[in-house]
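Explain this fold:

***
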Amino acid sequence: MSFTARAYYQHGHDDNPVVITTAEDAQALVDVMLRQPVENSTAALYIAERPRHEIGVPDHELRFGILPNRKLGSIRYVNGLDAWYAVGAQDGPDPVSYQYMGHEELFPADSLVGLDVLVAVITDFLAAGAEYRPNGARWASWPDEALGQEEDDGFGDL
């Protein structure tokens, strides 16, 4: 069976998402994301044929951000309550920052992968229908702690 992914990265995609059905479509999506302004540097993908939770939301998500000037990106995969990210390079201690329709999206500092990895993961996500964590990347569990926020010790600025 072939699957259909719906991609969202701009306002207005709620009613008219980008439809992806082939590896060529996956490459075309990455190519389009390279030309997006920073406020649209993250895309969220969902498989159309998968069931939804009883509250109407998808039970899975593949989300990725792209740094066009560096030709690198970051990937997160969620299935049910489990979340992973593609492990890649790290060039500093801070999380990698992208935006999803103008809202900040943070990925772990060691999540920078090449665009070839991004295309491979999207292609396998599409082929598998989100039944399993996509092949094409080395995965690690998404961190339990919030990214980019100082821990609050409860003492404020004392």
Observations:
- The chain has two helices and ten strands.
- The two ends are 61 Å apart (CA to CA).
- The first helix runs from residue 23 to 33.
